[in-house]
UniProtKB/TrEMBL annotation:
It comes from Prauserella sediminis. Belongs to the zinc-containing alcohol dehydrogenase family. This is NAD+-dependent secondary alcohol dehydrogenase Adh1. PROSITE patterns: ADH_ZINC. It is an enzyme of class 1 (oxidoreductase).
Amino acid sequence: MKAIQVVGYHEKLRQAEVPMPEPTGPYDVVVKIGGAGVCRTDVHILEGQWAEKSGVTLPYTIGHENAGWVHAVGSAVTNVAEGDKVIVHPLVTCGLCRACRSGDDVHCGQSLFPGIDTHGGYAEYLKTSARSVVRLDDSLEPADVAALADAGLTAYHAAAKAAGRLRPGDRCVVIGAGGLGHIGIQVLKALTAAELIVVDRNPDAVTLAVSIGADHGVVADGTHVSRVLELTGGNGAEVVVDFVGEGGATAEGVRMLRRAGDYHVVGYGENIDVPTIDIISTEINFIGNLVGSYNDLCELMVLAAQGKVRLHTSKYPLERFQDAIDDLEAGRIRGRAVLTP
Ligand SMILES: [Zn+2]
Ligand SMILES: [Zn+2]
């Protein structure tokens, strides 16, 4: 089969002819890829940023945002059958460790991450496990939802956690209405009656945010902290969800947070610099967010099937992988690029 592989760091990806994956373990599932999302992490892999952490042996097939049709299953698989439409949770997890048994499979002690530390989905077929596949509603197509498997799942995980404490009448500030942020806004809108205030430097992103459900859009032009304080009666918001996490976003974000509020960190890059006396005297909380669990992905697919979460995609045939990467790097993609073998 055709596969797009990393052959060296600081080198371009290369198309190769590789053996088809086959179920070898009882819980293995081989998926015929319908869509593989092209992610900024893929660019970082090529830059060598993951080389040490993943320990992967080159060459290998990248692509960690996958959806398609079940092609073959191991002898013990009962939850999906050949031909089922599925989206693939990015991790292959053991199901036996303490984290897996509490549904917190993201923190599995023995997980594999196809596309990062083993063969991924920029290919015609991908091997994953029965624990990782979520059946799709008839109304959804693999190529349309593939990119929700990672970027969308991370946004869902943070937004759903934030929504857990938001009551009607509360305010929630979302910083950043880009790729992850615009999914987070749709999720918050679906899960809570809290008032949503979205802050972004880009006026177009703010307009988009309002069109998908934000109650207030605020352009980050230097007056935005005082504007948010005005919108929250001078108190700040009960919850801030920060999809940026760099360029001074956290210092501004903390000033928008109410006493005893929750500050969700999703985007990353800078240090949070808050005096500890401020943390104890106001009882604010800082909460980290990684990618979502299998159950988070199931819930996100329910919202997608209900039409409450939509992702804009640009599709490329598998062979045009280089165009997709170039367009991503040049900022020419609205929403997400998806390879369709
Ligand atoms: Zn990704
Ligand atoms: Zn586990």
